[in-house]
Write a structure and sequence with these properties.
- The chain has 598 residues and is an alpha/beta fold.
- Among the domains are: 176 residues, 2-enoyl-CoA Hydratase, Chain A, domain 1, CATH 3.90.226; 212 residues, 2-enoyl-CoA Hydratase, Chain A, domain 1 (Alpha-Beta Complex).
- The chain contains 21 helices and 26 strands.
- The strands form 8 sheets. Strands 12, 15, 17, 18, 19, 23, 24 and 25 form an 8-stranded mixed beta sheet that branches. The protein has a 6-stranded parallel beta sheet with strand order 10-8-7-6-1-11.
- Helix 3 links the parallel strand 6 and strand 7.
- Helix 16 packs across helix 17.
């Protein structure tokens, strides 16, 4: 009953949002006006320190919704930027004579993806070639921030700070027991050989299969290995010793981090003034160091563009893949086709980097997008840059590119498909008293009939076999396109497919990717293939939404959050997540996993 109570609550919230929308927009624009008045007074002087504090949310692609960062509780606009701008700003600071160095102090509330974290770290390593300093100070370090800070010349920690060093884990949630209690049955259809295609497991099992457990163990081991190796190399430490320290929880206090060489000193933040002086930074007339945030530096020293130069186009494939058109921060086949065509028809764009950060989704939509990428590739070079993940449908749309560049910690592969149905005949009848009756021209004419996404009857063996034919056909198409696109023997593709996920580092070894690196490296490959190394610009080719669509999309989401209490909102999100995962139309090329660094 709670399932449908939550659903009705969400529906009511949407109706209420329509009634009060006009009033809400008055408050929104007042809030925006107020936030715009709070302009930064930062300036760039010859003794400037650029501070990377993660005050901004750093995304791998620009958001389509300009209101995405608006906080309806405080009526303020949160800061947000995307990876390309961050990388360009660090590159500019490298050659900016006014910038003395970078200060890593992760005090902000912004988030950052695994892919962005790896690529920002790479940019910091490159920045150090300028001879300028990179120094880090924090009141605490997570494993992710330590990974980033490890590039610094010196790392400082608060004497009473916190330090996390325990290794990595991937916890999976299984809904089979909950579905059983509700009287619902998830019917999963997948090719027999796709034993690693684990997207269906949370709904048909109560624990990981041995195949899924094995692949996820390999994945966390690979990513943990990348993180530990990078820190060990930067800090001149032994990687095996670092792993042992994590296993035994020997680094939990600031003194432990200092003892084992993970930080250089335990000091208070005000003592950083002396450290800046050691690097030759001079204070201003006001007796203070001129420290500007990375966000402020982006605004004050934007990347220099030569708008007449030939361009490398950047096309973003961000989010889950759906059929048709849509206006949220996901990939819709119709929208993506239009964006790719725009890049193809732009005569000034000589090559294209397709930035993929997607777990996949609809197999049909993936094929529609794949075709458009293939048409683009026939006219100009296409280089795929894989972010945090480019799995299943995300790999499908990447497979025909001229080259694939993946972050080492990218989650990719998952070459496999499935179909899923949610059947609730018993639940509808016994729990809710809902019954159905039907007249039909044939025994399968009502195949797929449902109420709010819940099937009203069990499928027959004939219908099950028909679905299996469909998923088998899509799997054959998927693997064939990988074989042709990557120039790999079909036998090898079938061996490394089976729905199995791989790290970006392992993908290069297997031939699923050509090199490890990020957006900068992918752009360099695109520049080389286009033969425009002497003079070029980077041009983002973005999907365009109507202002009204953007406004209404944001309003619908935020009004529901404003009028529903936290417990109900959590239940609504749970329901929406369950519905998205289980009630998917058609064959899916989708991988739900993303390994994060805590």
């Amino acid at each position: 009953m709670k399932f449908f109570k939550v659903f009705l609550a969400a529906l009511l919230a949407v109706l209420v949002s329509g009634i009060i929308s006009s009033l809400m927009w008055v408050f929104i624009f007042v809030g925006l006006a107020g936030s715009m008045e709070q302009t930064s007074k930062a300036v760039i002087t010859p003794q400037t320190i650029v501070k990377i504090d993660f005050a901004e949310n750093i995304t791998e692609a620009p958001t389509k919704n300009p209101m995405a960062g608006f906080d309806y509780a405080t009526m303020t606009m949160a800061k947000s930027t995307h990876l390309l701008k961050v990388l360009q700003s660090i590159e500019k600071a490298k050659s900016d004579e006014r910038v003395k160095g970078l200060y890593l102090n992760f005090t902000g509330v912004g988030g950052v993806t695994t892919g962005a974290l790896e690529e920002i770290r790479s940019a910091l390593v490159d920045f150090k070639q300028s001879g300028k300093f990179v120094v880090a100070y924090n009141e605490g370090y997570s494993q992710g921030t330590m990974y980033l800070a490890s590039v610094a010349d010196k790392i400082y920690l608060h004497p009473e700070g916190v330090f996390s060093w325990a290794g990595m884990a991937q916890t999976s949630i299984f809904f089979k027991g909950a579905l059983d209690k509700l009287g619902l049955n998830a019917e999963a259809i997948r090719p027999t050989v796709c034993k690693y295609k684990s997207a269906v497991e949370p709904y048909i099992r109560k624990e990981m299969s041995k195949e899924n457990k094995a692949q996820m163990q390999t994945m966390v081991d690979d990513i943990w290995g990348v993180l530990v190796s990078a820190i060990a190399e930067s800090r001149s430490l032994d990687a095996k010793k670092l792993m042992q320290l994590a296993d035994k929880l020997e680094v939990t206090q600031p003194e432990d981090a200092l003892k084992h060489g993970l930080v250089d000193a335990l000091i208070y933040e005000d003592e950083m003034d002396a450290k800046f002086a050691e690097y030759g930074v001079e204070k201003g007339a006001d007796g203070e160091y001129n420290i500007v945030s990375l966000g402020e530096y982006m605004a004050l020293a934007p990347a220099t563009l030569n708008i007449t130069a030939p361009a490398v186009g950047i096309v973003y494939a961000e989010g889950q893949i759906f059929d048709g058109a849509g206006e949220d921060d996901n990939i819709y086949s119709a929208n993506m086709v239009e964006t790719i065509r725009k890049a193809r028809k732009d005569k000034n764009i000589k090559s294209v980097v397709l930035r993929v950060n997607s777990p996949g989704g609809s197999a049909l939509a993936s094929d529609v997008i794949w075709r458009e990428v293939e048409l683009l590739r026939k006219e100009k070079p296409v280089i795929v840059s894989m972010g945090s993940y480019a799995a299943s449908g995300g790999y499908y749309i990447s497979s025909c590119a001229d080259a694939i560049v993946a972050d080492k910690m990218t989650l990719t592969g998952s070459i496999g498909v499935f179909g899923m149905l949610l059947e609730g005949e018993n639940m509808l009848k016994k729990n809710l008293g809902i019954t159905t009756d039907v007249v039909k021209t044939g025994r399968s004419a009502d195949f797929g009939s449902n109420i709010m996404g819940v099937g009203v009857r069990k499928i027959t063996d004939l219908e099950r076999n028909t679905l299996l034919r469909s998923v088998d056909k899509v799997y054959e198409t998927f693997t064939s396109k990988v074989s042709n696109g990557r120039n790999l023997p079909m036998e090898k593709v079938l061996d490394i497919a089976q729905g199995r996920v791989w790290s970006g580092a392992r993908a290069v070894e297997l031939g699923l990717a050509d090199a490890n690196g990020g957006l900068r490296e992918a752009i360099a490959v695109a520049v080389d293939k286009a033969g425009i190394a002497e003079n070029y610009q980077v041009k983002e080719v973005l999907e365009e939404l109507s202002p009204m669509a953007q406004m209404m999309q944001s309003l619908n989401m935020q009004v529901k959050a404003y009028f529903l209490d936290a417990e109900t909102m959590e239940a609504v999100e749970y329901y929406n997540s369950l519905k998205r995962e289980v009630v998917r139309e058609g064959v899916q090329a989708y991988c739900p996993y993303a390994v994060g660094i805590n």
